[in-house]
Sequence to fold (258 residues):
Amino acid sequence: MKINGYWLGMLSALWCMSVSAADLDRSEVEKRLANSDKAHPADLRRKDLTNLDLSGLDFKIADLWGSDLRRSNLSNSDLSGLILDLSVLSKVDFSNANLSNTSIFGVHVGGANLSNANLSGSRFIGVMDRANLSHANLSHANWGADMKNQSMGLMRASLNNVNLSGANLAYANFDRALMRYANFSGANLQNTVLFGVDLSGADFSGANLSGADLSGTSLEETNFAGADLTGTRFAGIKDKSKLKGLSSSKNLDKAIID
Fold:
């Protein structure tokens, strides 16, 4: 993916920030969390929390804006409702974590483990390439492009080569996202918005795409073997021969192809 000047500047700023931020260990983090309340959330803002075991902690009353959490273990932790904008989250372990209704904007989450995580109702704009989201809950998530920030270039979710096998994406919005070679096998995409998404090489084998909107998508070599296409909208598809596995998909006669 071509990175424009905005993204380069943002990443450079985050690198400088992480170098100068203070170091905390788990015991200090636990102490700040224990002493927090709604009026005084735990101050973890712009802190260097790299490589820490923070698993199983309750961060609901904490300020993690701009924190550096690279390679940290936050499995089974509760971060629901937090603003994680401009945090550094690459290769973080969020497996089984609660990230429902979080805001994650302008963030690199590449290579992170989000398997079985709860991301329902979350808002994400950033890079999450090669992340593991298998069996995660993304129902009603809004990961669609931010059309209000066009002056900085198209702000959208990059989810190339992600593992979404068995995930729940029902009623989620991925408008204009990049999802090349994503694995959706066995996933639930009922009424999911995939308008204008690049799905080249994606695997939807055995997925539930009933009611999903794939209008204007790039579907070169996309696999639909065994997928349920009841009411799936394929507006703008010029050459169905490029789609793999249609002959073995379910309810192809009920798909909307125009």
About this structure: Confidence is low (pLDDT under 50) at residues 14-22. The beta strands are 42-43, 62-63, 103-108, 123-127, 233-234, 256-257. DSSP finds two helices and six strands in the chain. The longest strand covers residues 103-108.
